[in-house]
Write a sequence for this structure.
């Protein structure tokens, strides 16, 4: 792999740059090996003016699959922010088309034309530290996704903090299924550079508002509410096979330092879920409780308990209890030991999801 970057500043307000990455690679399969050569040039601009900051990045991807041909993809990311004392506004936009495919090829993760492993575009949706919210309903599709997020930070006093976030994303186009030929015809949406709320484009949206208050004794309380909905449309079966899932999450966190040797953190999260694929019980709720005690900045003890009213959870369980103890050695090392069970299921971070076992 080779790469480079060059940047030039026009005074204090405008910066422009160019980067380039080229790589050779292979994808070994059972009876086939893809040999490929990839090139990704990028151009970007940054403008700082009167409290505003605007960033724009455009990337082009060429992948030459040996003995098959050359495939192209592209992406656009932009960010506009404004900051003054006590107020910050951020608007992010993404238009990722690294490898748009029909539903038959979309989930083939061995295809050599998809976004390359060393690429890492912004996800343009809120990162959560709360447990139930971090189990994201949406896995970013960098090959075919358009969307935006708006985030507002407001601090009316030195002790009060308010955060609002809203995001929406969807696919660019729709694929009509021909039952006779078992093939798809792309139906281009206009304008497809903005996300759609139409179910046929598999939209995902989320809205959250969060309040944080610091008290005179040093205690901190945090409460929020989030509403989110995911649609995963089935182009083959239509509405009958379309997965629709929505939830409302209310997280609560309180922390207090009692002495220089002891502090505690209490966390409770509630989630009301509606899932049409959970056919025997579409409506259910989840509850998460955590209590952490920190002793002398060295030792911590954590109790985590989760319960669900879903009688048909795939694990066959309805509650999970874990006790964890940790000890810090210096500033760079920590030893932790836990006992109990934790709920499995999809957990997402930075657009990457995994499914830990129970």
């Amino acid at each position: 792999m080779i790469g480079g970057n060059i940047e030039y500043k026009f005074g204090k307000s405008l910066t422009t740059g160019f980067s380039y990455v080229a790589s050779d690679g292979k994808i070994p399969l059972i009876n086939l090996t893809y040999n490929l050569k990839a090139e990704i040039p990028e151009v970007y601009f940054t403008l700082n003016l009167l409290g505003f900051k605007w960033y724009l990045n455009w990337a082009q991807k060429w992948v030459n699959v040996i003995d098959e041909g050359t495939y192209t993809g592209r992406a656009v990311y932009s960010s506009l922010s404004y900051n003054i004392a006590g107020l910050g506004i951020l608007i992010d936009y993404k238009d990722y088309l690294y490898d748009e495919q029909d539903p038959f090829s979309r989930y083939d993760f061995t295809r050599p034309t998809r976004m390359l492993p060393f690429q890492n575009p912004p996800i343009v949706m809120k990162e959560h530290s709360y447990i139930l919210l971090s189990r994201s309903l949406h896995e970013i599709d960098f090959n075919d996704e358009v969307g935006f997020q708006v985030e507002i930070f407001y601090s009316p006093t030195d002790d009060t903090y308010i955060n609002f976030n809203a995001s929406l994303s969807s696919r660019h186009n729709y694929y009509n299924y021909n039952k006779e030929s078992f093939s798809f015809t792309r139906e281009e949406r206009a304008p497809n550079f903005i996300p759609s709320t139409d179910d046929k484009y598999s939209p995902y949206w989320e809205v959250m508002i969060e309040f944080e208050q610091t008290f005179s004794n040093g205690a901190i309380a945090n409460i929020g509410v989030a509403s989110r909905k995911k649609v995963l449309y089935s182009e083959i079966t239509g509405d009958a096979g379309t997965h629709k899932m929505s939830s409302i999450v209310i997280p609560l966190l309180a922390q207090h330092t009692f002495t220089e040797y002891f502090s505690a953190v209490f966390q409770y999260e509630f989630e009301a879920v509606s899932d049409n694929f959970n056919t025997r019980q579409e409506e259910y709720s989840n509850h998460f409780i955590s209590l952490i005690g920190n002793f002398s900045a060295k030792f911590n003890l954590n109790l985590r308990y989760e319960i669900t009213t879903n009688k048909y959870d795939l694990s066959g369980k309805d509650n999970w209890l874990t006790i964890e103890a940790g000890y810090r050695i210096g500033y760079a090392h920590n030893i932790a030991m836990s006992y109990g069970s934790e709920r499995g299921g999809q957990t997402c971070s930075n657009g990457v999801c995994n499914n830990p076992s129970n």
